[in-house]
Amino acid sequence: MVHVPAASYGDGGGRLTMMTNEERAESFLRSHTGRSFCGACLAHALDLSALDGRSVMWRLRSLPDYEMRGTTCANCSRGKRTIRHIGRSTSAGSAKILDFLLEHVGIALCDACLAFAAEISLDDARRAVTVLARGETFARYEGICLVCSRQQPVICAMPRKGSGEAPDGTASASPVGSRGPGTRRGCP
Predict the structure, then answer these.
(1) How sure is the predictor about 40, in pLDDT bands with cuts at 50, 70 and 90?
(2) 104: domain range?
(3) Which region, left, alpha or beta, applies to residue 17 given φ > 0 means left and ψ of -120 to 50 means alpha?
(4) Residue 21: exposed, middle, or buried by beta-carbon count in 10 A (0-12, 13-18, 19+)?
(5) In this structure, what CATH number is given to the domain that contains residue 141?
(6) Same domain, 101 and 46
(7) Cα(129)–Cα(108) distance, integer angstroms
(8) pTM for this predicted structure
(9) What is the pLDDT of residue 12?
């Protein structure tokens, strides 16, 4: 039995060719379009050293579909220099919504309040929320908006598993999910 490395692909001629670290990072970031990752988390996801992860990040920043900036990493939630694939499908409105939700983890907001907070149109906010709600990072449910107090569909970024904190930053004695939807304290 021939062992095929996970980082290989066919070149069309029947031969296997190793993907470069940069190609692997591009593939990873394209599968997580719009989400920002620091060099350490990118390196961990690709089984690279931290130095290699940072080097790849600096090389990708010069490509047209990638953006490097100081923001919160989607994986470790630390404020660091991060890189993300912005792609052609991610509008400026979607990026604003994504950034806002990741900076305010655990806060449940309706589409209208989210649009107001991100300074975009309600239609853009609704389109962004529809896309983001498909991922496991965000919860979309019928609940009470923390800003306007209306009962309607809300979305929030889920706290990291095992963080030991409630969405409001206080220590959590019970699992975050035990509060349930419809409460004013944040994500279910």
Answers:
(1) very high
(2) 92-179
(3) beta
(4) buried
(5) 1.10.10.10
(6) no
(7) 12
(8) 0.45
(9) 52
